Amino acid sequence: MKYHLFLFIIAYIFYFVYYRIHIFIKIPLHSYMVIYMEFSKTSTGETIKRLRKSKKLSQEVLSGLAGIGRSHLAMIENCKKQPNFETIWKIAYALEMKPHELVTEIENYVFNDNV
Fold first, then answer.
1. 73-90 b/e (C-beta count within 10 Å ≥ 16 → b)
2. Angle of helix 70-77 versus helix 43-54 axis, rounded to 10
3. Which residue from 23, 51, 58, 100 puts its CA 20 to 30 A from 78's CA?
4. Which of 76-79's residues contact partners 24+ apart within 8 Å by CB, and which partners?
5. Are the C-beta atoms of residues 48 and 76 closer than 8 Å to each other?
6. In Å, how far from its chain's centre is CA 112?
7. Distance between CA 15 and CA 19 in Å, rounded?
8. Looking at the whole model, is its pTM more than 0.70?
């Protein structure tokens, strides 16, 4: 008898927690959605190169405006080196953008399948 009562209590707790708690909390659907974006090693360099060419700047000029070495910029554009946040910051301002705008451009490059 005690064993059956114990199982009943466990089953009721499971039922309450599993089914009823969702009714009381009412978790919105969008909180379950996860956007998965695979990191692309080429997206940063190719985006910077595209933006540089669209502003008709050479690597020498952009690297001078950003305060980084031309070879460093070349390695970033050729995807041989990943820039840290400070470098992204410097390049963004050299391209007359805010850092978050440059990051948004990189994200758009990844989301649009490198178009």
1. beebbeeebebeeebbeb
2. 120
3. 100
4. 76/44, 76/45, 76/48, 77/45, 77/46, 77/48, 77/49, 77/52, 78/45, 79/41, 79/42, 79/44, 79/45, 79/46
5. yes
6. 14
7. 6
8. no
Residue 52: CB atoms within 10 A of its CB come to 20
**Contact call for residues 62 and 91 (beta carbons, < 8 A):** yes
- For residue 51, give every residue at least 6 positions away whose Cβ sits within 8 Å of its Cβ, in sequence order, or none: 95, 97, 102, 105
Looking at residue 108, its pLDDT comes to 87
In the prediction, which pLDDT does 38 show?
60
CA distance 25 to 80: 49
